[in-house]
Amino acid sequence: MKVLQTILLTITVAVLAFAEGPKKAENFTLQDINGKKHSLVDYKDAEAIVVMFIATQCPVSNAYNERMAALHKDYQEKGIVFLGINSNKQESIEEIKGHAAEHGLTFPILKDHKNVIADKFSASFTPEIFVLSGGLDILYHGRIDDSQREARVTTKDLRKALDEILTGRPVTTTETKAFGCTIKRVS
After folding, report:
1. Rounded distance, CA 50 to CA 53, Å?
2. What is the pairing mode between strands 125-126 and 29-31?
3. Residue 123 in contact with residue 58, Cβ under 8 Å?
4. Is 93 helix (H, G, I), strand (E, B) or coil?
């Protein structure tokens, strides 16, 4: 009887989670490093919106600079929007501008001065990725791939999710464990 109750409880929890539907992101507006304002709803017609929490001083985030630039290059013409967000309190706009130019990061990079957006997303690491639909459903959350060292990558999680979205299929792996440096928050 106890086993049956446990099974029924597990099924009920799964059904309720499914019935709630996908998690949603809240719209926000932030300025990029050039002073232009960006809101998520500006991109409602995109195939997907990739929100990447990134940093200038984190060696893990920096190990991904070339991969982030390549992802943007490979997917921007396919209707995928990329937005970088820097939420680290110690990284200035000037530092972020120089870093972006030096590393070929041509997608908009927004400054989250008081960690408001990082807090809304419950983002903890750089890099940490959220892929959203135009309706702001969170379709994927986690890492870019499974290794800081590009030569050791075996799973390209973000590319797989984007390819599934572009072919109209549901994202099969909706969550992976992000890793990197912690976001340095304002106290």
Report:
1. 10
2. unpaired
3. no
4. helix
